[in-house]
Every structure is written in structure tokens, then in C-alpha cells.
């Protein structure tokens, strides 16, 4: 058992690519927690996709023993948190599990949008914050300018910021001393009823679900029966330990400590991030505040390119759901794409990560339909429901009004691209809330509709700013707007996979762009094919794909004109009949390209 005064729990917050995982590697290596021969880069990022994209997706933890300059031995618990906006809820829980943060800022780039978002979460959780300026070994590093920027933009004192190069190891000792001297020790009562916060959980094929916990009060031991307070399920602890990054069993976890338990839990769904764990008998009365189940924000359909792989896809999705409680799915069928799943995600990065993992780990080629968001539909009879899929849109005459989700977006952008960014946000029906300057960069705050952002906002933002803008958002709630369902008809048959929700003022331009694109993508048939975009019964845009023609008059040389006419009439009648019974094959590539529209 460790004395509370000698424990320090901290996390590292930073924008993507500012060197958070590398700094964690150096702290682990310099304290001898991992032998040099076992060391590898991004030690705490275990998934292939995390290593390849250079991002952290799951929160990871490690326990470090450190003997300070004053001769005392300390236990440092580091939680490496995801830096991406989609995983903001997991970050907020990890923040509540620790008392302090290292704020890592790249001394060549300065403060970025997610630096702000994450540091505000740390401030909300009452953290003591130690600023660290990383990458001082680079020639472009400018510590004084960045320290000043931290003070201007975030408002915390950066005069004593530690200057570090996580790559070369310079400044690591100073960082460890700052953790011991500047961050507060945890509080907690050993004799109170057990209260443990569930920080994260993941699935292991041998042990079942591994649960990462932070003990607030009380003591947790092997062989005890514990209860999850959100759903009342009871489990028997069969293993308890800490990560050094490998698992190391211990006899008990006391207040202020971070470790893991396994209790033969079968599904990650039973362990909700942010939940409170207590003893089955004589447990705590009240749960820890701030728990909320994760809510999917973006929905899209996943279909196998080869419909024979449907069972493999079901298998893959079920296995991924074992390991990711925030991912939801249900079966759906589509006339054009066959059987597939309608899946809910926390955001676009989450969607991409899951899609990549299915394609890579299970070797299934996927078609992803256009991402959509949840709309609130209010009917004239007073009832209301949530609409996840535009294909389920009810008859427009029965609807009173629709509400769509809005977000508050913060964009940091160099001055010369500001005009393009403002225009992009205006085009996406944004409302400007704020515009301030931090050095030579503008910070723009916009209120935007989420459905305009999920489509390809991020790609457009990166291209108009040559990759220099950084972007972060949070959900703010729902607002009524004039939204309609736009369906696409090919040969007068609706194609449900291409129907989308659009704003009425935008419907015509969106529809025209879509039908023009489809005209180029659908191959020509023996008969002419109308391609239409419609709202309800009203066609708003149309293109006609002309038929392939055989020259039936080739064998007529000279002679009577009526003979040619007769052959052409005969051909025309044949084409008319063909169009009645002919089926239009839309190739899969056409779907994929049509959904990527917006040029």
C-alpha cells in the first residue's frame, strides 16, 4: 500500500502530433519502468491503426516508480488520453481520474484547436496544469513566442514552462520533478465505502473484459463481489493489478491508485465508461457525478461489396462491438446494395477507424453510404421521434417541423486563409459567433449544422487552408430548420441509398450536382434513362442519359425515304418497350463516387 502523499496521477493533453505519446515513452524509459531492449516507439498505442495513423484511440495507463531528488520514492500514474474530438467523452472521464495534466505544446507550431479543447476539459476537472514546450531540438522552435501564446489564448502562466525534446530526452528529468513538486497528491479515505470510477474497458480473448479503474475511496481486493451502479450488475473480481505497461498482479488497490480488474465480464457493453463501481454489500449510497451513456452522433450504412460476405461482416461487427461500447449497429436492407448494417458512431474519425479496422482485420471490402445525423421529427398529431436514416422519412404532409443538431466549431487559421474559411462556413449555413486573434492566427467560432460538417467539411477546410487550419467542435443542441428529403430517381425508380436530407434553399444546387455526376457515372444502356432529383413528388433537377444506337438504316442506299422512316419508327418502338421492362444497373463505383460529391 502506498501513502497518498507519494502518489501523483496525471495525464498528458495535447493537439494531435504535438508529441504526447513520444513524451510518455521517454518518461517510461528514463525511469527504467521498461528495459531498453523492450522499448519501442508509441509504447502505449497498442492497435495497429493507432500506430499507423499516429493517433491514440483508447486511453492507456502506466504506473511509473520514481525516486525524486529529495530522496523520496513516488508512484506516478500516467493516463495517455486520446486527443481527438470524437473521443472527447472518454477524455473527460480520464481527466476526472487524475489530479493534474502536462499540457504539451509543439514549440514550432503553437496552440492549436484541440490543445484548447483538451485543456478546457482539464480546467473543468480542476486540474493543476504544467505547461511543457516540446520539440525544442527543431530549428523552427520559438519557445518565447509560444509561451506568450499560451498565456494569451489559454490564460495560464507559462513563464516557468518546461522546455523538452521528447525525441532526444532533453528536459525529461525536469518534467518528472515538476510532476512531483507541482501536481497535488490524490485525496481519498481508506475506511469509506468503496467508490471506483470506471475509466475505460476493452476486450481480451483470454480474460474477458479488462476494466481500468481509479479508486476514489475504499479498498478493492481480489475475490470481492462488486456492483456497477448504472445497471446494478454484480461481478466477482478474479484478478486485480496495475500496468507497468505489462500487467502485474497486486493484492489490493487503495484510494488514489489506478489499476485494472477482470471479473469474467463477457461484453464491453456491461461496463460503461464513467460508471461507479462499489461493493455489493455495504456499498456507496451515491454514484460519482458526471456519468452519461455515450450517444452516437453520426450514422451510416456499411454494406459488403460482395454480398456473399454478409455473414463475415456480421461476425466482424459483433467482434468490434465487443471492444467498443460507443459503437451501435442494426441490420438493414437496401434494394441497390443488398443486406448490410446501419451503424452509429461518435463522429467521423470514429467511423473511419471502424471502417478501416473491418477492412484490414477482417479483409472485407465495404461500401459506406452517405453519413447522416439524427433529426428530431415533430408530427402534426403531437408525437415526435428520432430519424436516423433519410430512407425512413415519413410523408411530408404529416410533419409539423424538423429539428437538426447544431455544433459550436472552433477553427484556428493563419491570417491569409481567413477569407476562404469564413466563406466555407457561410456556405455551410454557419452563423459566426466570434472572431479573435492569437498572434498571427485568427480564432473563429461558428455555430454550424452538424449535417453540413459530417459530409466533407474537414477535407474542404484542409484544402482551402493548405492544411494549416485546425478544427474542433462540440455539440450544442437542436434547432428547427427548413429541411427536406431529396430522393434520386433513376429510370423513375427511387434509389434509397442515395437519398439525403438537405436544406430547402440548397436542394436545387445539391440535386443538380448529384444528377450531373450520376450521368457521368452510370454506363449507357440500350434505352434512354432519365436521372432525376425530387423532393416529394416535385422533380427539381433532371439529366437524361442517351441510349446507345445501332444504325438500322445502314443497309438502305438511296431509294424511298419512307423506308428509312419505317426502320427508325420500328427501332423507337423497340426502345420504348425496352425502357418499360429494362433494368438499370448502377455499378458500385458509381455509388461510392456519387456519395463523395461536392466539388
From TrEMBL:
Coiled-coil-forming residues are: none
GO biological process annotations for this chain's record? positive regulation of translation
Q: Which residues form the Tr-type G domain?
A: 5-187
Does Transferase show up as a keyword for this record? no
Query: Where found in the cell?
Result: Cell membrane
What residues does GTP bind to? 17-22, 134-137
Topology in the membrane?
A: Peripheral membrane protein
Q: Which UniProt keywords apply?
A: Cell membrane, Elongation factor, GTP-binding, Hydrolase, Membrane, Nucleotide-binding, Protein biosynthesis
Q: Which EC number(s) are documented for this chain?
A: 3.6.5.n1
Residue ranges crossing the lipid bilayer per the database entry? none
**CDD domains referenced in this protein's UniProt entry, alphabetically:** EF4_II, EF4_III, LepA, lepA_C
Q: Which reaction does it catalyse?
A: GTP + H2O = GDP + phosphate + H(+)
GO cellular component labels: plasma membrane
**GO MF term (any one):** GTP binding
Function in brief: Required for accurate and efficient protein synthesis under certain stress conditions. May act as a fidelity factor of the translation reaction, by catalyzing a one-codon backward translocation of tRNAs on improperly translocated ribosomes. Back-translocation proceeds from a post-translocation (POST) complex to a pre-translocation (PRE) complex, thus giving elongation factor G a second chance to translocate the tRNAs correctly. Binds to ribosomes in a GTP-dependent manner.
Family affiliation = Belongs to the GTP-binding elongation factor family. LepA subfamily. Belongs to the TRAFAC class translation factor GTPase superfamily. Classic translation factor GTPase family. LepA subfamily.
- Classification via NCBIfam families: lepA (TIGR01393), small_GTP (TIGR00231)
Q: What is this protein called?
A: Elongation factor 4
Gene name for this UniProt entry: lepA
